[in-house]
Each structure stands twice: as structure tokens, then as C-alpha cells.
């Protein structure tokens, strides 16, 4: 007899490591190119000396630091082993088997997985023509089984951001029993007026998710957080995997908040590069949705696999989404130049379906 494994898991693809090779330019995972600041490295190095002890399971020091940073109460904050863990916990605390989770598609690849693992049912609402959320269609998809809605703002992988007014009218129309997760993993790169922390204050069904993995440059250390009314925060605590936010992660996050000004200043440089790359691509004939994050999306449809392969061959790793598109993370100027040198050749433009004059 073989061990019994939930049969429905067969439809979740087994993990396949992304392609990587020495010298590759990694523009596939929306990481920052720069490593942690010296002050953060020093704090983590110091914390290693106490690694024989369990971390604080309540992440009290981190949560208090976050609360004062965000001007909320500690009872409004939960920490997670990356915000992807908090996505999973939100499904666990809201859904009984067969309940529905609505999200836009394409969006963050973890949503379908955490939904299915949580025995809930995905309701995927196609993006609008401009590759942003179709909020009217998402409202129309709400049923009496809907328990959770993910809004990825800015949207990964397409980059579009919703405005405060768009989000407010959406949130006002969602029944207050349905939890809305505003996934703001790229908040720091957005210059839209939408700020989940403002929007959750008078809405007990809204939870904001943010992470230290992107603008704060700690993707390898694994720490993110949720901000919501205490009912949701207390529930998240009940399904939290004990001690999953390591002591090093808590320390690194606190040290990063102390250096927030310096880290956030880096986002201006990324935004300038995002504009430069997008403009160059558009001038060469590419379609590139406006992005409020640290990446740009090329909706190349059936040309996507060939394009991503050619990029890999040329030493640049980008992310391919089936036959929908590819996403390129904005790296440092040299890395972006390398991508543009690839993307703007006649041969590669042909691969992207751009008519090249003879
Ligand atoms: C990267 C990302 C996250 C979270 O990443 P963690 O490393 O788990 O904190 C969450 N949502 C979206 C949309 C992301 O792109």
C-alpha cells in the first residue's frame, strides 16, 4: 500500500526550482539587487549568538515596533513567516470546506494554492483589458459562499495599481461578513494614493498584508505582517504555525524599520529605472502596462515561452506566465541595460511579434 495523500493535491504542480546558473542576471523574483544594510547585518549577526533559544512566538517587540511605525495598536498587527503564510492563514480562518475565495487572475501565484490547500474553492475573475483588477466583475462574483477576497495592489505580475477612490467604492459594496485582504507586497514602490492602513481603520472586514521581502530587501529571511481589527488578528494567531517567524527574522525586521528612511529612499531609484525601462520598451514597439511595482509585464501571449527561453539563453532570468506574458523585475541600472540590450535587438523584437522594418 502506498501512503494516503489527499487526492486533490495531485492538481497542484510539484515544486520545480527556477532555472539558475552562475553569472545569471536574476530578474525573475522581484527581489532587490542590494543586500541588507550594514546595521541590519550587524543586528542579525548578534541575534545568531542566541539561536539556541526559541523566538518570541508573539513577536512582541516586532509587533510593537510595527504598530508605532504604522500608527496602529499592537492588537492590530500579526507577524508571519513571509506574507504568503498570512495569505494561507487567512484562508484557514475564514473558510469552511467548499467556501469561496475570489481573486483576480492573473495575480499572485500563491492564491490558488493556499485556497485549495485550505479546502476552499477559487473563483478567478479575469483582469480587465488594461491588466488591472475588474472590481465590478469581482463584486458580481460574490455569492453566499464567498468568505475571502484577495486584492493584490499593485497587482503581481501586471503592475497595475488601484486608486483610493476605486478601492473605497469597492470596499463599501462588499458585504461586511466577507474578509477583504489588501495584499500590498509592493506598497513601497507605488505612488498611488491607496494606503490599506487608512482603509482598514473603519472596516473590520479589511486586512492589509505587507512584507519585508520586497522593498526592505529581506526575501531570504522570511517575515511579513498583517494589519486588521483584533477579531481577525486573534483568529490568525490560532492557526499560526508556532515559532515560524524566526528570531533572526524578527531582529532583521526591527533593524530594517529603524533604517526605513534609507531603505525607502532606494525605491525612488527603482521607480526611475522602471520608467526608463518601460519607456524604452514602448518606444521599441512593446505593449507594457503601467506599473506601480518593481517589475514590468509584457503580455506576449503565445510568444511568451519562446521569449522567456531566449532571455534565459542570453543570461537573463525573467518569469514566464504560461502563454499570457512575462514579467521582468527592475534590477540595478546595469542589469536593466542588459535586459534592454537583449529586448531591443531586431531578432528578439521579432520573437515578441513586433514588426521590424527591413
Ligand atoms: C512577494 C509577494 C508576497 C509575499 O512574499 P513573502 O516573501 O512571503 O512575504 C505576497 N504577495 C505578493 C503579491 C507578492 O508578490
From TrEMBL:
InterPro entries found in the cross-reference section: Aminotrans_II_pyridoxalP_BS (IPR001917), Aminotransferase_I/II_large (IPR004839), ArAT (IPR024892), HisP_aminotrans (IPR005861), HistidinolP_aminotransfase (IPR050106), PyrdxlP-dep_Trfase (IPR015424), PyrdxlP-dep_Trfase_major (IPR015421), PyrdxlP-dep_Trfase_small (IPR015422)
Might you give the EC number(s) for this enzyme? 2.6.1.57
The job of this chain, per UniProt, is described as: Aminotransferase that catalyzes the conversion of aromatic amino acids and 2-oxoglutarate into corresponding aromatic oxo acids and L-glutamate.
Q: Which family does it belong to?
A: Belongs to the class-II pyridoxal-phosphate-dependent aminotransferase family.
Cofactor(s) recorded for this entry are:
pyridoxal 5'-phosphate
On subunit structure and binding partners, the annotation says: Homodimer.
Q: Which HAMAP family match?
A: HisC_aminotrans_2 (MF_01023), Phe_aminotrans_2 (MF_01513)
Where's the Aminotransferase class I/classII large domain? 25-339
Source lineage: Bacteria, Bacillati, Actinomycetota, Actinomycetes, Mycobacteriales
Cross-referenced PANTHER family, in alphabetical order? HISTIDINOL-PHOSPHATE AMINOTRANSFERASE, HISTIDINOL-PHOSPHATE AMINOTRANSFERASE 2
A Gene Ontology molecular function term for this protein is: histidinol-phosphate transaminase activity
Q: What is this protein called?
A: Aromatic amino acid aminotransferase
Task: Give the UniProt keywords, A-Z.
Answer: Aminotransferase, Pyridoxal phosphate, Transferase
Instruction: Quickly give the catalysed reaction.
Output: an aromatic L-alpha-amino acid + 2-oxoglutarate = an aromatic oxo-acid + L-glutamate
**Residue(s) carrying N6-(pyridoxal phosphate)lysine:** 214
Q: Do you know which PROSITE patterns this protein is assigned to?
A: AA_TRANSFER_CLASS_2
Amino acid at each position: 500500500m502506498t501512503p494516503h495523500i489527499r487526492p486533490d493535491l495531485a492538481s497542484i504542480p510539484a515544486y520545480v526550482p527556477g532555472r539558475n546558473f552562475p553569472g545569471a542576471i536574476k530578474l525573475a523574483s522581484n527581489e532587490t539587487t542590494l543586500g541588507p544594510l550594514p546595521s541590519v547585518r550587524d543586528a542579525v549577526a548578534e541575534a545568531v549568538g542566541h539561536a539556541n533559544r526559541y523566538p518570541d512566538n508573539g513577536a512582541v517587540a516586532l509587533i510593537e515596533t510595527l504598530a508605532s511605525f504604522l500608527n496602529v495598536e499592537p492588537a492590530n498587527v500579526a507577524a508571519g513567516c513571509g506574507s504568503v503564510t498570512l495569505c494561507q492563514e487567512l484562508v484557514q480562518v475564514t473558510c469552511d470546506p467548499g467556501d469561496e475565495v475570489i481573486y483576480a487572475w492573473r495575480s499572485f501565484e500563491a492564491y490558488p494554492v493556499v485556497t485549495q490547500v485550505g479546502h476552499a474553492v477559487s473563483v478567478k475573475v479575469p483582469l480587465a483589458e488594461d491588466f488591472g483588477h475588474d472590481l465590478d466583475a469581482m463584486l458580481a462574483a460574490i455569492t453566499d459562499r464567498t468568505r475571502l477576497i484577495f486584492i493584490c495592489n499593485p497587482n503581481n505580475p501586471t503592475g497595475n495599481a488601484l486608486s483610493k477612490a476605486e478601492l473605497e467604492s469597492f470596499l463599501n459594496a462588499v458585504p461586511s461578513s466577507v474578509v477583504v485582504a489588501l495584499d500590498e507586497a509592493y506598497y513601497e514602490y507605488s505612488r498611488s494614493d491607496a494606503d490599506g492602513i487608512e482603509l482598514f481603520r473603519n472596516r473590520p472586514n479589511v486586512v492589509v498584508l505587507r512584507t519585508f521581502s520586497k522593498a526592505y530587501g529581506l526575501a531570504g529571511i522570511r517575515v511579513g505582517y498583517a494589519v486588521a481589527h483584533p477579531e481577525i488578528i486573534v483568529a490568525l494567531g490560532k492557526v499560526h504555525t508556532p515559532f515560524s517567524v524566526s528570531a533572526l527574522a524578527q531582529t532583521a525586521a526591527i533593524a530594517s524599520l529603524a533604517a526605513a528612511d534609507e531603505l525607502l529612499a532606494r525605491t525612488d531609484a527603482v521607480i526611475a529605472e522602471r520608467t526608463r525601462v518601460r519607456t524604452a520598451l514602448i518606444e521599441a514597439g512593446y505593449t507594457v502596462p503601467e506599473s506601480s511595482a518593481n517589475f514590468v509585464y509584457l503580455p506576449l501571449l503565445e510568444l511568451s515561452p519562446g521569449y522567456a527561453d531566449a532571455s534565459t539563453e542570453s543570461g537573463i532570468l525573467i518569469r514566464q506566465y504560461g502563454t499570457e506574458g512575462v514579467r521582468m523585475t527592475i534590477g540595478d541600472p546595469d542589469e536593466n541595460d542588459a535586459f534592454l540590450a537583449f529586448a531591443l535587438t531586431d531578432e528578439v523584437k521579432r520573437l515578441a511579434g513586433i514588426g521590424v522594418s527591413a
